[in-house]
Amino acid sequence: MKKWMFMIILVLLVSGCSKDKEEIVEADEPTLAEKEESLLEDTVEKEDVSLPYVSPFSGERSEDEFTNRAVIVTINNHPKARPQSGIASADIVYEMVAEGNITRLLALYQSELPENIGPVRSARDYFINIASGLDAFYVAHGYSPEAKQMLKNGVVDNINGMQYDGTLFKRSSEKVAPHNSYITGENVIDGIEKIGARTENEKPPVLSFYESVQDVPPAELATVIDVRYGNSEDFHHVYSYDTITQQYNRSSGGTVTVDHDSLEDVLLANVMFFEVVHQTIDKAGRQQLDLTSGGKGYLFQAGYMREIEWKQVDGVLTPMENGQPAKLVPGKSWIHLVKTGIDQTVTFTP
């Protein structure tokens, strides 16, 4: 009898413990919805804590403060110079004519300075004005007569391949002059130190950004953009919007624009066109661009197109909408300066 009583008590104890364990497990096990909500909260909290700083030129967030002074490099855009090195790393690329309908690029680096940049080409007075307005350190190889005088007068802190060819600037055996001058990111820094230029960013641009591409309000659909500088296919550019990456890829003369060194496609969050008055000033076809009067513009982002204006705000060519800086999608931007008659130069399809 005592033996049976002992067995009954033992069974009850085991049963009670098992029940308690089951109840504890059930109470502690969150539902799938609770897990997803908790994960989302943790992610948002982590992003808010770990990415407190916003790039003044790209609008992208980072753990580190963006204190470095921007660097602008004149990059050769002749077909013999393509594909260029370091082009995919630029926060902003400005494209405009140098002579006739041949364009050059001004690549602005502030978020990162690539290992290799080039081919580097010569300065123009309006290139210098853009660099000066952005308070950037300017890099070029060569100069027009007007640009040479401006550099001599110290309009902008700079280094030039005319003085540092073979030292800070190196020639590539892959291409022929004048399409083969390159400079490394390390040598840009050495050049800044050599002339004793300031390294800190003291004048952030007045640019405005959305938090993300999802915040862009709907507008006129524009997934393919076509721009021509003159009649040459070499300077016929096409931008195509990728709904997966939510960015634009780019091609010139039918060839996709990639970075020579990394082989990365150039991907853009914003593509802009500013209508600027041009004037031919010499027999070589050199141009004078009016960068102070402002004018009509187009802004392409998130697969949409908006008609905007541009103004020079504190020296910076700024996209404007309803009297305020137009909001940009975080990421890299490409800005074209085109001649008057923008609706003839730039076309697009939904």
Q: What key phrases describe this protein's structure?
A:
single chain; 350 residues; alpha+beta; YerB-like fold; 2 domains; 12-stranded mixed β-sheet; 6-stranded antiparallel β-sheet; 7 helices; 27 strands; globular; disordered N terminus; DUF3048_C; DUF3048 domain-containing protein
How is the secondary structure organized here?
Elements: H1 2-28, H2 32-50, E1 53-54, E2 61-62, E3 71-76, E4 92-99, E5 102-109, E6 116-117, H3 125-133, E7 137-140, H4 145-152, E8 158-160, H5 161-164, E9 169-171, E10 181-184, H6 185-195, E11 208-209, E12 220-221, E13 224-228, E14 236-242, E15 247-252, E16 255-256, E17 267-268, E18 270-275, E19 278-280, E20 287-289, E21 295-301, E22 304-313, E23 316-321, E24 324-325, E25 327-328, E26 333-338, H7 342-345, E27 346-349
Helix pairs in contact: 3-4
Structural notes for this entry:
InterPro entries: DUF3048_C, DUF3048_N, YerB-like_sf. Pfam families: DUF3048, DUF3048_C. It comes from Paenisporosarcina antarctica. This is DUF3048 domain-containing protein. The protein has 350 residues and is an alpha+beta fold. It is 23% helix and 33% strand. Strands 3, 4, 5, 7, 8, 12, 18, 21, 22, 23, 24 and 26 form a twelve-stranded mixed beta sheet that branches. A hairpin with a 2-residue loop joins strand 23 and strand 24. Helix 3 packs parallel to helix 4. The longest helix has 27 residues.
